[in-house]
Design brief:
Length: 259
């Protein structure tokens, strides 16, 4: 009779799988520093040598990185593969902004719908905290703070879907569009009532998710992106007209002066 040996997983493999799961689900985000070795080993109930071996495994996969001066940090490898080439393309081809907004509409509509269906109470608490922080930021005359708070709110929705791909793709897309989001908010701030409308749109998304109304959440998210796209397009057309008018004025002035 053949003898079968039970394959017992190595402790370091189990620890590596646990840390990798935290990275995938977004509990550990790019740039986060792992707790000190002694604390993390105690939390996981393993020896420090096993923990070190697990960290080395994830470092070899490019998911963790030790930095000079101490500390082990989560890398952005899961998102950089998508982010890096598109960052360069967006800079070279500004017309891609429209494509990004179109894609963002599709992604965020689905994310809002699933968040309304799947969010835990803890997710809803985090989402509400992000929503409140965003409202506070919109009261301040600081575009960096506004854009950062806006991104945090939308990322909280992506993570509340409990879909690892949506969570990480949403994070990558929002980072790709960070400068664009800041530009959008700057342009929209010059339009009367735009800030009030943006706040009401975010409130509609937040309310639909918290009240667990998936269809309403999707519709609110899509309405928000539609407003941003159309209002931004109008603002850019107005800016182009102003530039044309300014060039004509200078040309006319030069011709009059020379004659």
């Amino acid at each position: 009779m053949p003898q079968y040996k039970l394959q017992v997983p190595r402790i370091s493999d189990a620890v590596a799988a646990s840390l990798e799961k935290r990275i995938l689900e977004g509990s550990l985000k790019p740039g986060d520093r792992l707790p000190p070795e002694r604390e993390l080993a105690a939390e996981l109930g393993v020896s420090r040598p096993s923990l070190r071996e697990a960290i080395q495994k994830l470092a070899s996969k490019g998911m963790l990185q030790s930095r000079q001066g101490g500390g082990t940090y989560v890398t952005n490898r899961l998102e950089s593969t998508f982010l890096d080439p598109w960052q360069e393309m967006l800079g070279a081809h500004p017309t891609l902004r429209e494509d990004l907004l179109e894609f963002r509409r599709m992604l965020e509509g689905q994310a809002a719908e699933w968040a309304a269906e799947r969010a835990t109470d803890e997710d809803l608490t985090r989402l509400t905290q992000a929503f409140d922080a965003m409202n506070d930021a919109f009261e301040a005359d600081d575009l960096d703070r506004r854009s950062s708070a806006d991104i945090t709110f939308h990322q909280a929705i992506g993570e509340a879907t409990h879909n690892a791909l949506i969570g990480h793709l949403s994070a990558a897309l929002l980072r790709l569009m960070q400068d664009n989001i800041r530009f959008n908010l700057g342009e929209l701030s010059s339009i009367p009532a735009a800030t009030t409308l943006l706040k009401s749109q975010h409130a509609a998304i937040h309310a639909a998710i918290v009240e667990r109304r998936p269809a309403a959440a999707r519709a609110a998210a899509e309405t928000h992106i539609d407003f941003v796209r159309e209002t931004l397009a109008q603002s850019l057309r107005s800016a182009a007209r102003r530039e044309t008018a300014t060039r004509r004025l200078h040309t006319d002035f030069s011709e009059t002066f020379s004659s």
